[in-house]
Amino acid sequence: MPETTHQFRAETCKLLNILTHSLYTNHEIFLRELLSNASDALEKVRFLQATGAAVRDAELPLEIRISSDRENHVLTIADTGIGMSEQEMIDNLGTIARSGSEQFLKEREGEKPADAELVQEGEDGEEAIVEHDDSKPSDAAQIIGRFGIGFYSVFMVAKKVEVTSVPASGDGSAHVWTSEGTGSFTLRALSGAEAEGLKRGTSVKIFLRDDAREYEEKWRIESAIRKHSNFLPFAIELDGSRVNTTAALWREPKFSITKEQYNDFYKFLTYDQTEPLDVVHFSVDAPVQFNCLLYIPGTAVDVFDERKDEWGPDLYVRRVLIDRRNKELLPNWFAFMKGVVDTEDLPLNISRETLQENTVLRKISQTATRQLLTHFERMAKAEPEKYEKIWKLHGRYLKFGFDSYQHRDRVAALLRYATSAQEEKLSSLDDYISRMKPEQKEIWYVAGSTLEAAKVNPHLSRFRRKGIEVLFLTDPVDEFALEALMQYKEHGFKSVELADAAALDAFPDVEGAEPKPEPLSEEKKPELDALVAAVKDILGDQVKDVRVTERPIDAPACLVSADGVSSSMEKLMRVMQKSDGIPQKIFELNPDHSLVRALMGICAADASDPMLKDMVNSLFDSTLLLDGYMNDPFAMAERSMRLLKQAAGWYSDLRK
Ligand code: ADP
Ligand code: MG
After folding, report:
1. Are 401 and 321 spatial neighbours (Cβ–Cβ below 8 Å)?
2. pLDDT at 131 > cutoff 50
3. Fewer CB within 10 Å, N or C, the chain?
4. 232 and 361 co-located in one domain
5. Are residues 323 and 235 in the same domain?
6. pLDDT digits (tens, 9 = 90+) for 340-396
7. Residue 225 and residue 276 in one domain
8. Nearest CA to ligand 1 atom 12
9. Are residues 159 and 222 in the same domain?
10. Strand, helix or coil for residue 207
C-alpha cells in the first residue's frame, strides 16, 4: 500500500521537541492522556448509540484494553471507541488540538498569553499588570500535570508510535499513522490480511524508549492508572484483568464515600493536585431528579479556563456524559465550583444545541444554586475561618451575584470586607450594620487600589473623627458590585467621597478627637478667595478648577471629579476607555486646615512669592498621589528638597 508522508506543523514540532528532550519526573501522565482520549472516543460511541445512530460493530463492548509485550518493549492501548478516518488522523494527530498544549508551549517560552493577566490601575495612573498568584506554576512538571497536554505526551516515552484506527462510520477502512516524534508522520491504508479482523476503534502501539521500559511492567501501569485514571467511566483491562474500579462516584450514597475517594475524584476531574477545600454532594428528586457533586477548589480558579470561558459542571444523563463544562447548570458567580451533575430527567438523545434554554437545566440550576447558597451560609456561620479562606480565593466570583435578582440578598450576606473598625478581620454587611450608629442610614465605603491606599484617603479622616465605620474596597469590581446592589437591608451604599458635610456634622465627635478649628472669620474670606485665585494660577491646566471644599474632610485638600463619580469608579472607566495620563479634576481646599490658613497668610503678603508656588505645587502633588496618580517625580523630588532646605534652615535658626 502506498504510504504518504506529512510534515507536522511548526508548533507541533516545538512541542514534540520539548517533550522528547526534556526530563520530566512524571512521564507517566502520557497514560492519563491516552486513556482520556480512549475514554472520549468511547463516550462518543455511547452517545451515538444512545441517540439511536448506527455504529459499526455495534455488539462490541465499550472498553479499553492495555497489553504489554515485554520481549519487544511495546505497550498497546486499544479502545472500541469512535475511531478515526484517514483525514481525521491527519487533522487530529497532525496538529495541536488542545489549548492545554498551546498553553504548555507558551509557558515554556516564557511568554504570557494576552488575556492571562488582569489589568488594574497602578499608583501612577498607568495600567499595571497584576498577575493572578496561581497563574504561574513554578515548574514544568506542575504545568504538565495541570493541563492536559494531549496525545503528543506519548513521545516522552516512545521512540515510535503506530496508531491504527477503524472509524465507527464510513466505509470502515483501516489506516495506520506512524511517527517517531520528529518532523513528520506517515499514513498508510491497510488491506488484505493486515486489515482482517480489525474492528471499530483505535489502537495505539507504543515502542518504548530504552529509558522508559518501566511502562512495560504491570505494576507500574497499574499504579499510574490508579493515580490518574481510576474514575474513567469505562473498564480498563490490563493483560486481561480489570484495573480501574470506581465509576460515577456522584451516584454513590454520601456515607459510603471516603474523603480520600472524594479527593481522588477531584484530582481526576480537574488535574489539580491541591486538595479541594470542600465538597458539596447532594441528590434531589423534585422538581427534577439529579445528583450533584461539586468541589470548592483549594487554588484560585485557572485564569486560562476563564479566558476560554470554560466553566460549569460536566453534565451526565444517566451516567452518560452529555456535555463537559455546561454553563446552564450554575450561575456564573459560582463559576469557581467544579464537578458533575447527573440527571434522569433528560432524554439521552438530547442534542447539544437544545441544552440552551432547556427548562430541566434551568430547574437544576435554580435548585443547585439554592443548595449551594445554603451550604455557604451554614459554613460562614459555623466555620468562619474556612469561609474566609474560600472567600479570599473565590470571593471575586460571588461578588457578581448582584446580577441575580432572585438571590442578590443572599449573596450580599456572603460578601466580606476589611473595614476601618476592623482592618485585620473581614466583616460581613450584617457585622457592619450591627455596629452602625443609631442615626446612621448609609453603609459607607472607601475604594482604593490597595488597603494602604484606601486607608489614607483624605475623605476618610472625618469618618474616623465621628467614629463611623467605613468598608475598604480594594478590588476594582467591589464598588461596581455595591453600586449595582444599591442597598442591603434598606441601607444604601455610599462612597465617603460623596459625603455631605451637613449630614456628618450631626454626629458627635468621638472622644479624644482633635477639636475642630474655629471657622474662618468673615473678614478673612477675601484672603481665602485670593488664595483660590493664586492656586488656580499656579496649577494652570493641571486642574479643571480650584474651589473651597464643602466636603467633610480633615485633610488640607482633596481632588474630586467634575461629574460627581467617585475616584475609583473614574479609574475603572478610564481603564475601560484605555485613557492614560492624569485626569483633570477639581482641586478643593479645606479652609479649616492650618496649612491652608498659613498659605492664605503668605498669599496675602505676596501672591507671587516663589515659596507659595513651591508649596502649592507640593500640596497638589501629594493630594494627587493619595488619589492614586503620580505627577512628574523628578520635579516633585527637586521641589521637596528645596522646601526641606528652607524649613531646616528656619528650624535650626529657631532652636539657636
Ligand atoms: P484532545 O484530547 O484535547 O482533543 P489530544 O492531543 O489528546 O487532544 O487528541 C487530539 C485528537 O485526536 C482528539 O481530539 C481526537 O479527535 C483524536 N484522538 C486521539 N486519540 C483518539 C482515540 N483513541 N480515538 C479517537 N480519536 C482520538
Ligand atoms: Mg486528549
Report:
1. no
2. no
3. C
4. no
5. no
6. 999 989 887 677 777 888 899 999 999 999 999 999 999 999 999 999 999 999 999
7. no
8. 92
9. yes
10. strand
Distances (CA, A) of 622 to 116, 559, 562, 585: 34, 11, 20, 14
Q: Which domain holds residue 288?
A: 249-394
Grid look-up 489502537 returns: 203
290 shares a domain with 217: no
Residue 349, in any domain of the structure: yes
**Which of 341, 369, 394 is at the close of a domain?**
394
**Which CATH number do you get for residue 277?**
3.30.230.80
Q: Are residues 30 and 75 in the same domain?
A: yes
CA distance 391 to 379: 11
Is the confidence at residue 655, as pLDDT, over 90? no
The alpha carbon of 4 and the centre of ligand 1 are apart by a number of angstroms equal to 21
Tell whether 89 is covered by a domain: yes
CATH code: domain of residue 541: 1.20.120.790
Cβ burial of 417 (10 Å; 0-12, 13-18, 19+) is buried
Q: Write the burial class of residue 232 (CB in 10 Å: 0-12 exposed, 13-18 middle, 19+ buried).
A: buried
Query: How many angstroms is it from 379 CA to the middle of ligand 1?
Result: 41
Query: In this structure, which residue's CA is closest to atom 16 in ligand 1?
Result: 92
pTM: 0.72
Give how many domains the chain has, as a whole number. Answer: 3
Ligand 1 atom showing the smallest separation from residue 88 Cα: 16
How many Cβ atoms sit within 10 Å of the Cβ of residue 560? 23
Q: Which residues line ligand 1 (CB under 6 A)?
A: 33, 37-38, 40-41, 79, 81-84, 92-93, 97-98, 148, 150-151, 202
Of the residues 242, 274, 304, the one at which a domain ends: 242
Which is more confidently placed, 273 or 120? 273
Mutate to test the pocket of ligand 1, among 15, 36, 46, 92 (most ligand atoms within 8 A of CB): 92
Do 532 and 652 belong to one domain?
yes
Least confident among 122-131, 245-254, 608-617 = 122-131
Mutate to test the pocket of ligand 1, among 19, 30, 37 (most ligand atoms within 8 A of CB): 37
Name the 3-class secondary structure at 176. strand
Query: Is 169 found in the same domain as 128?
Result: yes
> 228 — alpha (psi -120 to 50), left (phi > 0) or beta?
alpha
